[in-house]
Amino acid sequence: MQYGNNEPFAYMIDGVVIGRLDKVDGNWKQVEGEQTPKEVIADIAYFLDHRE
């Protein structure tokens, strides 16, 4: 979920935000929340980069 274009993307489980990603220098980075496996971040980043 992203509230605005300049806001980090929040990801959640069961409606609870567990972390936020932000695109820094062209790469998605976890900027907040619980430690998330790199594979999960890569999957979310792929989704974000390919959304319309």
From TrEMBL:
Classification lineage: Bacteria, Pseudomonadati, Bacteroidota, Sphingobacteriia, Sphingobacteriales
Protein name (database record): Uncharacterized protein
